[in-house]
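Ligand: NAP. Inputs:
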Amino acid sequence: MFGNQKMLNLLGTGLSGLVGSRVVELNPQHQFTDLSLDSGYDILKPESLEPIFQNNPASVVIHFAAFTDTNAAWEQRGDKNGLCYQINVVGTQNIVNLCQKYNKHLIHISTDFVFNGQKQGSYTEFDTPFPLDWYGETKYQAEKIVANTNSSIIRIAFPFRSNFPTKIDLVRKIIDKLKSGQEVKMFSDQIITPTFIDDIAQGLTLVIDKQPAGIYHLVGSTSLSPYDMAKTIASTFKLDQNLVVPSLLTDYLKTPNARPYAPNLAISNQKFVTEFGFCPKNLQSSLKNL
Ligand SMILES: NC(=O)c1ccc[n+]([C@@H]2O[C@H](COP(=O)([O-])OP(=O)(O)OC[C@H]3O[C@@H](n4cnc5c(N)ncnc54)[C@H](OP(=O)(O)O)[C@@H]3O)[C@@H](O)[C@H]2O)c1
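Predicted complex:
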């Protein structure tokens, strides 16, 4: 539990997912209501959500739900009837409409995949997005809908956490492979910004409290290549570093029909640190707390 906060009622979409479920676990002081398919709510059917928006006393809604399978999203590129566009864009529009109608503050969760990775240096909240893939495109379109309101847009990047068998994050994939003695081939010419989900949970507690309007990068304090990340993981957990082998994104991108990947996803969390006084951990400290 973070801080010494009084109990709040909160509505959330996607609270069964990789990130949302940990945010719930780490904020037991709050009463979350999960607007999930399992509980009979569907963000594509706003009429299923109307009664709870009308009757629940929550003044804040956290919108995690998304179509997050980036490879499957790429197969749907350009298809506005596809599930990716429907959930990420139409679903978000539905949540925005309901928040406005019932006067609830929206915290919308977005992604570093809105950027094309061509920048020299770290991306800030002032950089203009230019998504490369369909998942990023739909998340950017959702951001543009949300940006017309006084909502909080919280971009996260490469989230990882303690074991969550339902969905295996990149850090966990690397740990599992190394533990079973398998080779781990990772790009050495790409930069990413892995983020400990426990820090996202702590940062969101502050966002819930302050309800700021605008975009914030709630990301980890280390940007590095996936190859260096795998090496760091191996050394932290005393696993075989020789199993970590470099490969090149530039080579991968030459293969026919390659899904585009952004080369530089170094993301700055400076604005969040300055405005909230909370600094997400660097990779090594995060791994030690995993
Ligand atoms: N994971 C990443 O690498 C990453 C990186 C950057 C940003 N993000 C963003 O972070 C947020 C959370 O990601 P995640 O990885 O935690 O997601 P996730 O594990 O893939 O979970 C997706 C969630 O969305 C819900 N959902 C899907 N369709 C729905 C619908 N029609 N109605 C209601 N709920 C629906 C799912 O509920 P059911 O279980 O009921 O299907 C599930 O709880 C997303 O907005 C994502 O874009 C993720």
